[in-house]
Design a protein that fits this description.
This protein is α/β, with parallel strands linked by helices. The chain is built from 12 helices and 10 strands. Helix 3 crosses helix 4, helix 3 runs parallel beside helix 5 and helix 4 crosses helix 5. The longest helix is centred in the middle third of the chain and has 16 residues.
Length: 281
């Protein structure tokens, strides 16, 4: 679905943001893009949606070369969710906001109404269609922004820090919604500084550092490389750090969440492994 081939990008002031970057993301994957500020994540996202063009190499999305495609063409392939929903919402009602993109694609009448209704239902916004988005909570406005992306029916969802500025409950609701969309067939690329959310929801992680790809693999494998993560200012979730000594002794399987650790402990207590070895006295 997404293929980056030896991609480089240099800004007009001479700053090189990306260096010889190559990776591919298969259709239906849920991938997290992580790295410290200045690693090149935002530049890469702008390359994916056509706002920037590579200065070397190329990016293909569904076979479409982003350097040659019009932004409107890419909008049918890639849906981009901004970090701040208020940078994305500008119309007086939720209904108009959701209809804006499909209307620009040429949808009219019943087809447009159906598209709006479907997108609203997907994120639980049906009761709010005639409400001004500015009257909603930030978490609800993030849903409006996400629904406006879904109304375009893109194959890929690119999410830039979708939980920023939200409390844990709101953040978890948004991520559960994203997971549901992924299970329905969307390819998801998530940019996040929240390592717990990455561990809980993503299946694979790409780690950028100074414009280069430092790590690429299953989340558990990537989080095991604490030496490289430390050099990029990233710290795995505490539950992973807590479980690692037991994993190194072969007493626990790799865990990414508190729920998984709890399940392992219950298994130990039921005698599936020696509980006296796993649990300290």
């Amino acid at each position: 679905m997404i293929r980056a081939e030896n991609v480089e990008f240099t800004y007009p002031n001479g700053f090189q943001a990306l260096r010889d970057l190559s990776f591919h993301i298969r259709s239906g994957e849920f991938v997290a893009l992580i790295g410290q500020n200045g690693a090149g994540k935002t530049t890469l996202l702008k390359l994916l949606n056509g706002l920037l063009k590579p200065t070397a190499g190329r990016i293909l999305i569904g076979g479409l070369d982003t350097a040659r495609a019009r932004v409107a063409e890419l909008a049918r392939k890639v849906g981009f969710l901004f970090q701040n929903p208020d940078h994305q919402i500008f119309l007086p009602t939720v209904r108009e906001e959701l209809a804006f993109g499909p209307k620009n694609l040429g949808l009219k009448g019943a087809a447009l109404e159906d598209r709006v209704a479907e997108a609203a239902a997907a994120v639980g916004l049906t009761p709010y269609l005639d409400v001004n988005p500015r009257q909603l909570s930030k978490g609800q406005r993030q849903r409006v922004a996400l629904a406006s992306v879904l109304a375009m029916q893109p194959e890929v969802l690119v999410l830039d820090e979708p939980t920023t500025g939200q409390d844990y409950r709101e953040a978890l609701e948004i991520m559960r919604l994203v997971k549901k969309l992924h299970q329905q067939g969307h390819t998801v690329l998530l940019v996040s500084h929240d390592m717990e959310m990455v561990a809980r929801f993503a299946g694979r992680a790409l780690v950028l550092g100074e414009g280069r790809l430092l790590l690429d693999g299953p989340v558990a494998t990537v989080f095991a490389r604490e030496d490289i993560l430390a050099a990029t200012g990233l710290v795995p979730p505490q539950v992973i750090q807590l479980a690692r000594p037991y994993q190194e002794q072969g007493l626990l399987r790799p865990v990414l969440t508190v729920e998984e650790l709890y399940a392992e402990i219950i298994a130990a207590l039921r005698g599936e492994v020696d509980a006296r070895q796993v649990l300290p006295a």
